[in-house]
Every structure is written in structure tokens, then in C-alpha cells.
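task queued by scheduler; priority normal; single chain, no ligands, no partner chains; default sampling; output format set to C-alpha cells
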Amino acid sequence: MRMKTYRIRRPKVVVIGGGTGLPVILNSLRNESVDITAVVTVADDGGSSGEIRNSISMAPPGDLRNVLVAMSDMPKLYSDIFQYRFKKEDNFLANHALGNLIIAAIAEMRGSTYDAVQLLSKMMHVDGHVYPSSDTPLVLHAVFKDGTEAVGESKIALDRKTIDHVFVRSQNPEEEPKAARKVVSAILEADMIVLGPGSLFTSILPNLMISEIGEAVRKTQAETVYICNIMTQKGETEHFTDANHVQVLHEHLKEPFIDTVLVNTERVPEGYMDFEIYDEYLVQVKHDFKALRNEGCRVVSTDFLKLRDKGVFHDGDKVVEELLTILYGAKS
């Protein structure tokens, strides 16, 4: 008699964001038995990504490049080549990451950043899915409390004004920002949505401000988890508590949608951080657990801190351990 075998479905986890925090979580999460989808911001307009998006009108490749590497099982030599950044003395190629140029070349060949990332995902043996939040570059706008406005992700923090809200527009003003293929269905079919860690106004919210994505995040039955930043950021979250971060997210989507917040409670040692290298950071985010609970959130507060290279980061393994506890608790 033949025994029947049943394939147990891996839980579906969608991680939304950008910047340097997202790859840390993905790198740890890919070692677990989960079906990962990364939704990556396309509002970056600075550095190599900004130059490329302005030259050939494509979604900026930098955050996508870092996510592809984080989810790939390529040998280290290959990923080092993909991540190689030309020296600033190299004139025409100065400061460009080789991977950005490769993504740009394939996007031009295929006529789509989305298609380029799918092809590279196969070439780089990515276990999971990587989607740009939109297939076209988006322009981030910030409206400040004094009524003035900044246009462009790289411009928002310069004047260090208090941000009231942000929104996105297509680079072509006649087009409405649209979610890339499969992004909305991935969110609606997920068991868990993870936001962050990353810059609140410039890495996380640009994704949610695409109306289709914001609506999907509001509608999804998935457990929605926000990983709160460890440090405040110049021109973005100065003087913010952890509850202020969540309040801003809820205000932008016009309803409470965060189920659980992960908060680091470990102190950064005095004098450890090199603020010349990490010049966008200010002080540790303060805690307001009562206000968090008033936002309808469950709070998980513990040591998520990792100190490395005179900088402050989330410990990906510790965060993922907590995410899995929440995920399997929610499914049981």
C-alpha cells in the first residue's frame, strides 16, 4: 500500500521597506522554512541609484541590489563582484555599484525593472521573491508642518524640518503610481507582513503611499509587524518615541493596522557609535509603551541590538526568532 505524502505549505512572509535594515532581516529569514517576498522601495534618488534612474528612467536599483544579495546563496566572491563599487576617482563610473549597472542593463534589455529583477533572481539563486514596489521610478514628496514641501527622497532631511506627511508621484506626472505585478496579491495572501527596519518616511512609507499597496496592507488578514528603529534620524524622526513611529504609520493609512511592534530595549554603550560615519542618526528612540498600546498594538520589547563597525543595527537572528514565534503563534 502506497503512503500518501502531503506537502506542508510554508508560511508566506512579505517584508516591505528599503535601505540597509531590510537586507539584515532577509538574510536571517531566508535560513528558515518560510516563503519570503521582499517588496522594495523605488523612491531613492540619491547616489548611484539616482544617477541611473535619471539617465535611463528606470526604478532605482540600489535597494533592489542589496535585497537580491541578501536573499541569494551565491558564493561570496560572486556577491562581492556584484556589490563592487567603483572608486570616486574613476570619473565616469565613480561611485557606481556594479550590480546597479547590471540591473540597469537588463532592465533596458527587457524593458522593465521588474522583469530584470526576476531574471536576476533566477541567476543568483534567490530563494523567494523580490519585487520592486512599482515598475517605474517614483518621486517622494514631503509636506512639512510649516506648509513647505520638499521633492525627492534625498532632499527631505536636509532642512531638518518636522514632517507632516509624505506622498509619492510618478516621474511622469500624467501617470498614477501603480504597484508592480504580484505585489498586491502577495500581501493579500501573506500570513505575516513585516515593515522595516528602515527609515520611516523614506524607506517604509513610500511603499505604503502607492494606493494599491496601502489598501492591500489595510485589507490583509496577515499579522502585521512593525520593527521599530533603534535610533532617531536627522530630519525625519527627531525626538520620536516608538509610539510616534506607529502613530505616523496609522495616520498615513488613516486607520490602525499594525498588530505587533518589536522594540529594542538594550542600551547602546556610551561613546560606541561613530557619528561621523553614521551621520544621519541622533539618539536612541525613547519608549512609550502606554501610547503604543493605545494604538492597538501588542508590544514585544527585548534586546534586538547588534553592535558592529562602530554602528548600531538590528540583530537579524534575534528579530527573526521573535517573528517566527509570532507567526506560528498566530497560525496555531
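post-processing summary
- The chain has a mean pLDDT of 92.
- The radius of gyration is 19 Å.
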